[in-house]
Amino acid sequence: MTKFIVTAITLFCLVQTVFAQSKLDSLLPVRGFCIAAPQPKQLDTFIKFIDEELAPRQVNTLILRVDFNYQFDSHPELSDSIALSKREVKKLVKVCQKNNIRLIPQINLLGHQSWASTTHNLLRVYPDFDETPHVKMPDKYVWPNADGLYCKSYCPLHPGVHKVVFELVDEICDVFEADAFHAGMDEVFFIGDDKCPRCSGRDKAELFAGEVTEIRNHLAKTNRKLWMWGDRLIDGKTTGIGMWEGSFNNTYRAIDLIPKDVMICDWHYERPDLTAVYFATKGLSVITCPWRKPDFAVTQTQDMVKFRKSVTPLMKERFQGMMQTVWSGAGPFLDEFYGVKVNTDAGDNTQANCFKALYNEIKRLNEAQ
Fold first, then answer.
1. Residue 234 exposure: Cα atoms within 13 Å on the Cβ side
2. Strand duo 285-289 + 118-119: pairing
3. CA distances for 78 relative to 63, 178, 265, angstroms
4. pLDDT over 90 at 8, yes or no
5. How far apart are CA 167 and CA 175, in angstroms?
6. Distance between CA atoms of residues 348 and 344, nearest Å
7. Where, by residue number, is the active site (predicted)?
8. 10-19, 90-99, 320-329: lowest mean pLDDT where?
9. CA–CA gap between residue 81 and residue 70 (Å, rounded)
10. Distance between CA atoms of 253 and 245, rounded to whole angstroms?
């Protein structure tokens, strides 16, 4: 009899857990967190963070911006000098699988091949891939500048670039046991340059859409999905959103040219703009992504839930959820989150506070259902 009671209680608890999870998934299918992959020395603290902070908040998607922070077998010349090993990545895979968190790696493709005065590994090792080799990296970076240099891009039409980057993509997806890949592709200012022997005179929207499609089609060969940032698909001039969260170089027209199964990560950090509706009406699935303003994160979460409740069943499935973004390294974020180092000048507007506010609001809205 006692054994029967214990079994019944266990079954009841299991049913309750499944019901609660189903309820939350109905509210927001994707509950994400995006951050740079930790350095090896930060790995144990980050795993603790996944176990003790992400999992209890029922985060179900973790995007790690890996870039060259991995000891690649396919292209060891592109790995950072200090980088995660396969064994260390498998620790991340294990803790995510234990907590039912979908793990998605990111390598910045097309844009963000440099930062400030530093050329990143791909163009440093393979300078022929550079879309704008005539633009030289300054000793001291300032914006604005005469060259319009924000970040370098690789040339999407270079005959050798995809062999290299796709070998990186395949390897990182395999080691992370991932069914999706995040290609970045935000803030692309250099594309279709007039001095590029391959891209000159070509339509920038078609170039951008072509690269999105090329990446998507490559991933589809192994049944993986493409995720990307959405800013280059927004008309920054007509909307007034501007050149950072939208496009001033006409790539926005690519929204009508790319495959509809691409997941759009729609980021807005200075205003809670309602562009998720735009992406959904174009047939694309979309996730809204805050950064460091807790009040905006709350508003954006409420908007996303409202969208899902107020549209047709077909449209509802395109409004996929929310994702906190972190744009420091994992180490500084963890220091901030655990109170080791706090920027008192920022007040409440910090990444850690935004993360807490976002998931507190998700919890409140779920309980109110």
1. 27
2. unpaired
3. 21, 21, 27
4. no
5. 12
6. 9
7. 187
8. 10-19
9. 9
10. 15
The H-assigned helical ranges of the chain are 2-27, 43-49, 86-98, 121-125, 161-175, 204-220, 236-239, 276-281, 294-309, 313-316, 330-337, 351-367
Position 3 scores a pLDDT of: 61
Catalytic positions, written as ranges: 187
pLDDT at residue 214 in the model: 98
Res 355: pLDDT: 98
Mean pLDDT for 267-274 is 96
d(CA 262, CA 73): 28
Domain boundaries along the sequence of the chain: 2-367
Measured distance CA(31)–CA(358) in Å, rounded: 10
Helix (H, G, I), strand (E, B) or coil at 320: strand
Residues near 131 by Cβ (< 8 Å), separated by ≥ 6?
152, 153, 154, 155, 156, 190, 191, 193, 196, 199
Q: Which CATH superfamily is domain 2-367 in?
A: Glycosidases (3.20.20.80)
pLDDT digits 0-9 by tens, 23-41 = 999 999 999 999 999 999 9
Structural element, H or E, at residue 287:
strand 285-289
Judged against a pLDDT cut of 90, whether residue 293 lies above it is answered with yes
Residue with structure tokens 């319009």?
Answer: 148
Distance CA 110, CA 207 (A): 11
